[in-house]
């Protein structure tokens, strides 16, 4: 008597593969959104860390320090998109901190005002408050603001509806090839 061999038929295998494809079709967009939100939190944290380090350096060394948007990672640019990255420089224009471009799904905008955040040797950031808004493109509900006050302290807060919509509608940019 031959032993009974149990196996899957081609039809059973195809049904299982179709079900897996269907589940993945529903799960991947949610996973992509979760990854984008994680990248946004990481970018906001990186900006806050940069601002804290710049302020501490200004106080520690007793020199002016600037955090600004940069297209090339070497010099400040008043027309640069903060999403392309930012640098921290001292009075002598020595770059001591660089942040690379954000992921293309993220946008960074700023309110009208200063193009850079300047920290004085006493840790203050004179003039008026500066606000940078970070978000996932096309998703105003994801927006978060980084506000730098006159005292030089930076914090995260929920942006106004206009700022959130402006960030979400920011034009796409191509990622620079290395």
What features would you describe in this structure?
There is one protein chain. The chain has 178 residues and is of the alpha+beta class. It has a domain at 35-64 and 103-168: minor pseudopilin epsh fold, CATH 3.55.40.10. It has helices spanning 10-61, 161-168, and strands spanning 65-69, 86-90, 95-99, 106-110, 116-119, 130-136, 139-148, 154-157. The strands form two sheets. A four-stranded antiparallel β-sheet has the order 3-2-1-5, with helices on one face. It is elongated, with a radius of gyration of 23 Å.
Topology:
Elements: H1 10-61, E1 65-69, E2 86-90, E3 95-99, E4 106-110, E5 116-119, E6 130-136, E7 139-148, E8 154-157, H2 161-168
Antiparallel strand pairs: 1-2, 1-5, 2-3, 4-6, 6-7, 7-8
Question: What's the quick description here?
Answer:
The chain has 178 residues and is an alpha+beta fold. The protein has helices at residues 10-61, 161-168, and strands at 65-69, 86-90, 95-99, 106-110, 116-119, 130-136, 139-148, 154-157. It has a domain at 35-64 and 103-168: minor pseudopilin epsh fold (3-Layer(bab) Sandwich), CATH 3.55.40.
Fill in the keyword field for this structure.
178 residues, alpha+beta, minor pseudopilin epsh fold, 4-stranded antiparallel β-sheet, 2 helices, 25% strand
Q: Spell the H/E element sequence.
A: HEEEEEEEEH
Distance between the termini: 68 Å
Number of strands: 8
Strand order of the largest sheet: 3-2-1-5
State the major sheet: 4 strands, antiparallel
Mean pLDDT: 89
Count of alpha/pi helices: 2
CATH topology of the domain at 35-64 and 103-168: the name is minor pseudopilin epsh fold
Poorly predicted regions are none
Shape: elongated
Proportion of beta-strand residues: 25-35%
CATH architecture of the domain at 35-64 and 103-168: 3-Layer(bab) Sandwich
Rg from C-alpha positions?
23 Å
